[in-house]
Structure formats: structure tokens, C-alpha cells
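Need residues for this backbone.
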């Protein structure tokens, strides 16, 4: 099956408020309240007010690994966590969520957490004898901090599954810990291709990796958008490095090596890189990194008179990019292997969380639903939940979920979004 959202005619059906960042404490427990999600309605654009007025990140087209448009499926019914399971589970049964919940890129982790909360709320209302908790662990997206948090997660015997980690770097750093503990690690967002080559038997990726996203976006830029010269700029994270390599390989000679550059996470002054790009006069600039640096980078490009199209991927594809970049974000093209939020889900999500869905929100919902379905099927321990996911096949809000023996999705596609 294809991604479970409707096509472009309904993209403008809903306009939502910008994502905000809410601080959370590491290791705290969340009880959700709200309910009801369906994927039979239209995907929504996420809006943010910047200096250029209200701008939205809108889904444009779904593409395959060759960069060719793939029609989005309609009318597909997603698995829901709201179905009464009729089971009784042990008091205190919990899943964990690990990712950036505070810090510069907190919105990316919070989007996942808030999607999980929708699934938990639905489930717990429908199953009074099986109340599942979510314990949240803030890594700030930092691999070093994640390695300090990971032992807390595996040491909590109530936790039988993990939603996360969220970022590729922290996933790489903590993977051996979770694998040794036999704890299911189900990521909604870590896309570095190498993560599934480590022999971890507990790790599953809930979206396409960058070996799919990179070539797909590169070919779309060349064959559909017609770019002849692209400057590829990356940050120094595992995510940025892996994505940039895939993009450059996919672009081939279109990637201009004279303006290739690397910046550091946390940088705010991009003067040298902007000058390099300005001198090359490219058709587009591809940025492989996160929105915390992408926003000031695109502002400084525009301030310097660079008119090349700004292109980036899932690390930038969040309303916080638009909010922080303001009018400089207009017409930016942002890819993501994540699925747009269907309208009914978006309404439920916003009512529960006080903000609109963002990147990975649907994946947060879908992957939590899968774990809850495992618990409802009678799974009571970590080993059982790993085996359940290994054999799982079902339709979610974003896509069909079925994994190969490496923990990669059997079928995966990429969405192209545009700020406007």
C-alpha cells in the first residue's frame, strides 16, 4: 500500500498554528487526555508566523527513490490504538520515549512525543483494564547525554518498549546499550542508513532512511526542478553527514564541489559559507542538518542577495524553521520520509497537545499504536515485543508498516513539501 493520505487537491484543507516547544523533565511520566484519530481526511500544512507573514509548510508531491511522482493512496483505514483489546495488563506497564525534548531542536522530539500521547490516550480510554504509561527521557539530541539516559531506561523494569531514539547520532551512541538489554528500539526519525548495519536485533526504523531520501530528492531536483548547479552544505552531525553524502552521490556532477561546505551544530554566523555560495551562483543550495542552523543560514543567504532555491530535508521540515527564518523561508523546498498529518488526526492532536502536528507526529502515533497493539495481544515483556514487531504488518496513518530482517521498512517513499 502507498502512504495513507489523500492527494494534492486537499492539501489546503486545514491551516494550523505553529509548533511550540514545551519543556519536559527527563524520566517523567505523561498521562494523555483527548482522543479519536482517522486518516481518511486531508493532510495539513503546518503554519508559522514570521516576518514575511503567515507561511505554511505544505505537502506538494510524493516521490519514489527515482524522484518520480507516486500518487498518494486515499480511503485507506489505519490501525487505531482506540480498539478495545479486552485484555488486562500489569499495573505500571510502560513504554519509553527518548529524544530531544529541550534544547535547540526540541520541536522534533516533542512532535514524536505528542503523537505518542494521542495513541496512548485513545488506547487507555478504550481499555480500562490496561493502562499504559509513557515515560519520557530528554536527551537534548546529544549523543553524550543520550548515553547517560540510556541506562536509566533499560534499568526501569516497567519499560517494555522504546519509541526512539530520535536523532541518528544518539541512536548510534546508545544502540549497543538497548540491543544488549533486548529492548525494542522503534525510531520515528533517525534516518542515517548505517544504523541498520550494526547487527542490532532490536532496532526498527519507522520511515525511509537517507539512502532512499537522498537519491530521491537529488533526482527530483535534477530531473523535475531542472537544477544545473547545487551547493551542498552539511552540518557535522551523523545525520547531516550521511544525508549530504547521499545527496552529493545522487546529484553527481550537478553538486558543485567548489561551494561544498560544512558547518557546526550550534553555529549562528554563516558568513564564510554564504560568501562561498554567493560566489558560485548556484540554482539551489541543499542544506543537510537541523532547523536550528537552517533558519539563520537561509536568512543570511537572503540578506546577502543569494536567490538560489533553499532545499533541505526532514531535520529542517518543522514549523520552527519557518517561525525562526521568517520571510526568508518562503519558497523553501523541504523533503521528508514522514507522512503529512491527516485532518482528523490533526484536530485531535491539537486539542490534546495545544499545537499543530509537525514532522514525525504521525510516525509517533503509528509506532506507539504498534507497541500498544502488541501489549493488547498479550505481550508482557521486552523479548515478546521485539518478536511482535518483527512479524508485524499493518497500515498506519503515514504508511504501511512491515519490516525486513535488518529493521528497515519493506516499502518506503518520500514527500516533497514547500513553504508558501
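Answer:
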Amino acid at each position: 500500500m502507498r502512504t495513507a493520505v489523500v492527494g494534492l487537491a486537499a492539501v489546503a484543507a486545514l491551516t494550523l498554528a505553529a509548533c511550540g516547544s514545551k519543556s519536559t523533565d527527563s524520566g517523567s511520566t505523561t498521562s494523555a487526555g483527548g482522543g479519536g484519530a482517522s486518516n481518511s481526511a486531508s493532510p495539513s500544512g503546518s503554519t508559522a508566523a514570521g516576518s514575511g507573514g503567515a507561511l505554511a509548510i505544505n505537502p506538494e508531491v510524493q516521490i519514489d527513490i527515482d524522484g518520480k511522482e507516486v500518487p498518494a493512496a486515499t480511503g485507506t483505514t489505519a490501525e487505531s490504538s482506540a480498539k478495545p483489546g479486552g485484555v488486562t495488563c500489569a499495573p505500571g506497564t510502560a513504554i519509553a520515549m527518548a529524544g530531544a525534548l529541550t534544547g535547540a531542536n526540541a520541536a522534533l522530539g516533542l512532535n514524536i512525543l505528542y503523537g505518542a500521547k494521542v495513541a496512548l490516550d485513545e488506547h487507555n480510554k478504550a481499555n480500562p483494564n490496561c493502562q499504559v504509561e509513557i515515560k519520557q527521557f530528554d536527551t537534548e539530541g546529544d549523543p553524550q547525554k543520550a548515553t547517560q539516559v540510556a541506562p536509566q531506561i533499560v534499568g526501569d523494569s516497567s519499560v517494555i518498549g522504546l519509541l526512539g531514539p530520535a536523532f541518528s547520532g544518539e541512536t548510534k551512541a546508545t544502540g549497543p546499550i538497548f540491543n544488549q538489554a533486548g529492548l525494542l528500539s522503534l525510531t520515528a526519525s533517525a534516518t542515517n542508513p548505517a544504523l541498520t548495519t550494526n547487527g542490532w536485533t532490536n532496532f526498527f526504523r519507522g520511515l525511509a532512511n537517507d539512502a532512499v531520501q537522498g537519491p530521491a530528492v537529488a533526482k527530483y531536483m535534477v530531473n523535475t526542478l531542472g537544477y544545473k548547479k547545487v551547493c551542498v552544505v552539511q552540518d557535522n552531525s551523523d545525520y547531516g553527514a550521511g544525508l549530504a553524502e547521499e545527496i552529493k552521490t545522487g546529484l553527481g556532477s550537478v553538486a558543485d564541489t567548489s561551494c561544498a561546505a560544512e558547518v557546526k551544530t550550534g553555529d549562528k554566523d554563516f558568513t564564510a559559507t554564504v560568501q562561498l555560495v554567493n560566489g558560485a551562483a548556484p540554482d539551489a543550495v541543499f542544506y543537510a542538518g537541523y532547523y536550528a542552523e537552517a533558519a539563520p543560514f537561509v536568512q543570511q543567504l537572503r540578506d546577502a542577495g543569494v536567490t538560489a532555491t533553499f532545499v533541505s530535508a526532514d531535520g529542517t521540515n518543522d514549523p520552527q524553521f519557518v517561525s525562526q527564518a521568517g520571510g526568508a523561508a518562503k519558497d523553501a523546498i523541504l523533503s521528508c520520509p514522514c507522512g503529512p498529518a491527516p485532518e482528523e488526526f490533526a484536530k485531535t492532536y491539537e486539542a490534546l497537545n495545544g499545537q499543530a502536528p509537525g514532522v514525525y507526529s504521525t510516525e509517533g502515533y503509528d509506532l506507539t499504536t504498534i507497541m500498544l497493539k502488541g501489549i493488547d495481544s498479550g505481550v508482557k515483556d521486552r523479548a515478546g515485543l521485539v518478536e511482535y514487531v518483527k512479524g508485524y504488518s499493518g497500515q498506519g496513518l503515514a504508511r504501511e508498516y512491515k519490516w525486513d530482517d535488518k529493521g528497515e521498512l519493506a516499502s518506503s517513499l518520500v514527500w516533497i513539501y514547500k513553504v508558501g
